[in-house]
Amino acid sequence: MRKIQINRHGSIKLLLAIIILIPVMGQSADQDLSDDSIYHMDADWQNQKGEIVKLKDFIGKKLVLSMVYTRCPHTCPLIISYMSFIQNALLPEEKNKVHFLLVSLTPESDTVEVLHKFSQKRELDLETWSLLRGDAGDVRALAMAINVKYKATADGEIAHSNMVSILDEEGRIKFQEIGLKSNTEDVVTRMFSDP
Amino acid sequence: MLALVLVTSVTGTIMLGIDAGEYRPLYLNEETPMVSVESFQLDELPVSNRQYLDFVQKNLKWKKEKIPGIFAEKQYLQHWIKMNESWQPREKEIEAAVTNVSWFAAESYCQSLGKRLPTVAEWEYVGRASETEADGSNDPTYNQRILTWYGKANSQVPKWGNQSPANVCGIKDMHGLIWEWTDDFNSSLVSGESRADSSLDQTLFCGAGAAGAADPSDYAAFMRFAFRSSLQASFTLNNLGFRCAKDTN
């Protein structure tokens, strides 16, 4: 993506400078990451606007993350409502410190258009929410990293963990809400508490 | 039902074509549907230390000294030794199956060759074949041999492969050498949410549940499912390695 934009500028010097700099920058950034950060995963993802993003782009924010799929009839609407309740429970000064991330378990059918429409239907504020789709292998790897289990069932649905993960600013799992039982205000309190 | 097609990949690894088919997973009852497996290709042998060394030399982020904790435990490649500032297998163990690798490492290795890890269904479909039968689970001596291996204490590395005859699919060392990673190793539990078979958790893990399973004699497969569900993707164990698979083009 970055390279394409540079090609449009047509500056070979700039392109060379960036080719030389990217590995150096990438290396130092990776070394700064904490050992158990999910930001070590450097796959490309596509958001609801069709932009290419990396998980690392969310560094510095607390993340409220869940893996869902838009056709999902039962648990996913509940998960997304639960995440919205968490957002509503944030204090005004906390609102810009938290980002809400939905990663599709069915990237083939959850195209950019589907994700965008879904975000409109659910009235998600796209300043603070992102919907991502990625390569099936990268979806599986992310699921492994945050311990989300999922499997296609015979009736065409996806059985998956009913879980919301809360990550700190460095991409480490702070805690996970399995079964969405906790009071959302309590979730916010724990999200902002010291480790 | 199972084809014997030899496919040699560019790296010199032999892959064999496996015909599509279906099998009855051990943990389902008689009324639940069979599991279908599309045709695919599978490595003849588990990945060796030599092959894995070649991978880390080309993909530096998977070197023992570089790999972040989220991708592998500290014991990653612990049977390798440090020579000239870099970790490598002992010379005499170079052709043995690589172990002490995490799921992330195994998956990334396969991806680097345009392959992937086999799914649980694919692995089990091929793994039930004995040297003479496509479905060795009906052969009591075959099951007993596997169980005897499970009953042995976990021996140390190296894991010398390629010592036993291939099964009827031409695949070697699926039993008796190492445990192997599968792409969706931890997903057997979630399918318990499926309305068709809500008793899955129980039938999978309780001894009593085996009475309702399609084939209670296939205790070896129960062991594998229980083992897999105890794993996490960053685990590295000295008896856990992998082989790669690929979709049929």
How would you describe this protein?
- The complex is a heterodimer of chains A (195) and B (249).
- Chain A is an alpha+beta fold and 195 residues long.
- In chain A, 36% of the residues lie in helices and 21% in strands.
- Chain A has 6 helices and 9 strands.
- In chain A, helix 3 crosses helix 6.
- The N terminus of chain A is likely disordered.
- In chain B, strands 1-2-5-10 form a 4-stranded antiparallel β-sheet, with no helix packed on it.
- In chain B, a hairpin with a 2-residue loop joins strand 6 and strand 7.
- The longest helix of chain B is centred in the middle third of the chain and has 12 residues.
- About 9% of the residues of chain B have low confidence.
- With 249 residues, chain B is an alpha+beta fold.
- The two termini of chain B are 19 Å apart.
- The interface between A and B is medium-sized, with 23 and 26 residues.
Main pleated-sheet profile of chain B: 4 strands, antiparallel
Low-confidence stretches of chain B are 191-212
Oligomer: heterodimer
Total beta strands of chain A: 9
Distance between the termini of chain A: 37 Å
Mean pLDDT of chain A equals 85
Would you tell me the structural class of the helices and strands of chain A? alpha+beta
Query: What overall geometry of chain A do the principal axes of the alpha carbons give?
Result: globular
Kindly report the average pLDDT value of chain B: 82
Helix content percent band of chain A: 25-40%
Structural class of chain B: alpha+beta
What coarse outline of chain B follows from CA principal-axis ratios? globular
> Helix tally of chain B?
6
